Amino acid sequence: MQSSPPAAGHAGASLPFRLWTPEERQASLDEALRHWQAGEDVWVYGYGSLVWRPDFDFVERRLATLRGHHRALCLWSRVNRGTPECPGLVFGLDRGGSCRGVVYRLAGDQVPTYFPALWDREMSTGAYLPRWLNCTTESGTVRALVFIMNRDNPAYIRALPEPELLAIVRRAAGRYGPCTEYVVQTAQALRAAGIHDARLDAIARRLELDGQALPEGA
């Protein structure tokens, strides 16, 4: 059963937290690429920071819709956008609905170069489940690598009331910077791509009004 979130001021701090070992990340990567043929191009789906900071070269980028999951601030972040003592929230793909994002096509010969770094970034705690899922684009359906939320992971958090969510985001920061910056940059990148996410827009505009967020185009 999902427990209630801890009281404000130490939200998520009492939950179990462990970084995956390099061996665990490598085993997960090997499993994800088990059916990949060396040299074959692959697609990667982005719905959060991968939209504005993919950190890999790609040969093609398309807008894409993933069905069966929706974008949500449903993952406690104790490293990238928070700390174990003051966790932030980052995006995951939770069950239900659909999500508009982007897909990137990586050249097959670049997969061994970029995928280990991608796993270090996305799979540091094993909170996501790497899956190959169909994504719909204007040029047809592609089978893409998608990182969906692992609801069995202790870092998963169900939807929070907006005031509590905003309070958590405003106070958290991690190795990649403030949580506020992360949420606002994601919203700005989606707007720039022509992707409308009403709930995220409402949250981001509240944060932008605080004067704590990066200006447009930063």
UniProtKB/TrEMBL annotation:
<dbReference type="Pfam" id="PF04752">
    <property type="entry name" value="ChaC"/>
</dbReference>
<dbReference type="InterPro" id="IPR036568">
    <property type="entry name" value="GGCT-like_sf"/>
</dbReference>
<dbReference type="GO" id="GO:0061928">
    <property type="term" value="F:glutathione specific gamma-glutamylcyclotransferase activity"/>
</dbReference>
<dbReference type="InterPro" id="IPR013024">
    <property type="entry name" value="GGCT-like"/>
</dbReference>
<dbReference type="GO" id="GO:0016740">
    <property type="term" value="F:transferase activity"/>
</dbReference>
<keyword id="KW-0808">Transferase</keyword>
<dbReference type="InterPro" id="IPR006840">
    <property type="entry name" value="ChaC"/>
</dbReference>
<dbReference type="GO" id="GO:0006751">
    <property type="term" value="P:glutathione catabolic process"/>
</dbReference>
<keyword id="KW-0456">Lyase</keyword>
<dbReference type="GO" id="GO:0005737">
    <property type="term" value="C:cytoplasm"/>
</dbReference>
<protein>
    <recommendedName>
        <fullName>glutathione-specific gamma-glutamylcyclotransferase</fullName>
        <ecNumber>4.3.2.7</ecNumber>
    </recommendedName>
</protein>
